[in-house]
Amino acid sequence: MNKNVVSRFLLKLIEDYQKAWPLIKLCTGESFEKEHWRKLITILKMPKEVTFDNLTFGNLVDSVPEMIKKAKEIKELSDKA
Questions:
Q1: For 9-15, what is the mean pLDDT?
Q2: Amino acid 2: pLDDT
Q3: What is the distance between the alpha carbons of residues 80 and 78, in angstroms, rounded to a whole number?
Q4: H-type helices in the chain, by residue range?
Q5: In this predicted structure, what is the pLDDT of residue 27?
Q6: What is residue 1's DSSP assignment?
Q7: What is the pLDDT of residues 38-58, one digit of tens each?
Q8: If you average pLDDT over residues 2-20, what whole number do you get?
Q9: Residue 45 — left, alpha, or beta (φ > 0 → left; ψ -120 to 50 → alpha)?
Q10: Burial class for 23, CB neighbours closer than 10 Å (0-12, 13-18, 19+)
Q11: For residues 48 and 25, what is the distance between their CA atoms, to the nearest angstrom?
């Protein structure tokens, strides 16, 4: 595999995580309750088997591309919390 392809892939991955991290931080704190997490799961189009009770950080990491697309909705959800 070409080193440039791998480098571009890794740089894109890092950029995506940098964009997503502030969004993940918006979803923390005492004001973000079960109903907000349920809405976030819906916004991010997570699989139906993912619920508030079994949500993991890995689920959020897997949802980074969708999280970036839905940044505005996540910010609005955080503002309502």
A1: 95
A2: 74
A3: 5
A4: 3-26, 34-43, 57-62, 64-69, 71-80
A5: 86
A6: -
A7: 999 999 999 999 999 999 999
A8: 92
A9: left
A10: buried
A11: 24
* Residue 46 DSSP class: -
Q: Which of 20, 51, 16 is nearest to 37 (CA)?
A: 51
Q: Is 42 exposed, middle or buried (0-12, 13-18, 19+ CB in 10 A)?
A: exposed
| Whether the predicted pLDDT of 73 surpasses 70 | yes
pLDDT at 28 over 90: no
Angle at 9 (CA atoms; ends 1, 28), nearest 5 degrees: 150
